[in-house]
Specification:
By secondary structure, the protein is α/β, with parallel strands linked by helices. Helices cover 34% and strands 18% of the residues. The protein has 7 helices and 8 strands; from the N terminus they run αβααβαβααββββαβ. The protein is globular and about 45 Å long.
Length: 202
């Protein structure tokens, strides 16, 4: 899909199949704050289940399990709430949209590499694979789509990436890998499992 008209035609074609569908949106603040889910709901006329929690990483977080997709997926202690977007994932849905990765970048989580044994959920590659495997297992009949993270504010002159911290100060990211590498990891892992990717980075 290369042109705007192609995108419009594609969306027009797929809209009927998503009308009234239960769409689970699972991820970070991009989902949590509601603009993205509302846009999807208005466009597709579907029913959104918002399970976005701001600050969420793909990888395991022992300090804040409620901000880890891995911990929330498995309903681990202190990872889910009884109300709001932090609740446990639903028992069923028709579509799953995952959006996460930018907080792994900001928090300098280790990238790792393809890990068919899925042995280390503190590394991004392995955690993505674990999440995909278990989402497919939990929702065998659902269509799963994983978004790559969007670009950050950057200074092209020195190739540094910045984000706004909790005090709204613009601070430099502590890198262990690049945001592009995380986007590539998502694409590679999704290819292993036959899961579609919505590339918001390119």
């Amino acid at each position: 899909i290369k042109t705007v008209s192609d995108k419009v035609n594609y969306i027009t074609e797929i809209m009927p199949q998503y009308k009234d569908a239960k769409v689970l949106m699972f991820g970070d603040s991009f989902i949590d704050y509601g603009v993205y889910p509302t846009a999807v709901q208005n466009l597709l006329k579907c029913n959104i289940i918002n399970r976005g929690v701001g600050g969420s990483t793909i990888v395991r977080r022992t300090d804040k399990p409620n901000q880890s997709l891995i911990c929330r997926l498995f309903n681990e202690d202190n990872a889910v709430t009884t109300s709001g977007n932090g609740q446990a994932l639903p028992e069923s849905c028709d579509v799953v949209i995952v959006h996460a990765g930018v907080n792994d970048f900001v928090q300098a989580k280790e990238l790792g590499s393809i890990d068919l044994g899925m042995s280390d959920d503190s590394k991004i590659y392995s955690a993505i694979q674990i999440i995909l495997y278990n989402l497919i297992k939990k929702y065998p009949n659902a269509q799963i789509i994983w978004d790559t993270p969007c670009h950050f504010k950057s200074r092209a002159s020195d190739n540094k990436d910045f984000y706004y911290d909790e005090s709204k100060n613009l601070v430099e990211v502590r890198k262990s890998c690049t945001l592009k590498e995380i986007a590539i990891a998502i694409k590679e892992c999704c290819a292993l499992y036959g899961v579609k990717v919505a590339d918001m980075y390119s």
